[in-house]
Amino acid sequence: MDEQYAMANLVRELRALTGLTQEKFAARLGVTFPTINRWENNRAKPSPLALEKIESLLRSLGDKGEALHKGYFGKEA
Question: Which fold has domain 3-73?
């Protein structure tokens, strides 16, 4: 699976799992709404700092976050 495509799906599924709108998810990660929209539509990829925040959010979700991380990257969160 293409890495950027996988990231777009990961961001979309993580946001759905948290039940947040793009705007609220953006605020949680410290980015803007258009940034989340670009990530989800595969027009940009998260910065290294944003990736750290995404990983932290995945870890905070416990088993659900770990399963989502493994599904895209084949390793534990």
Answer: 434 Repressor (Amino-terminal Domain) (1.10.260)
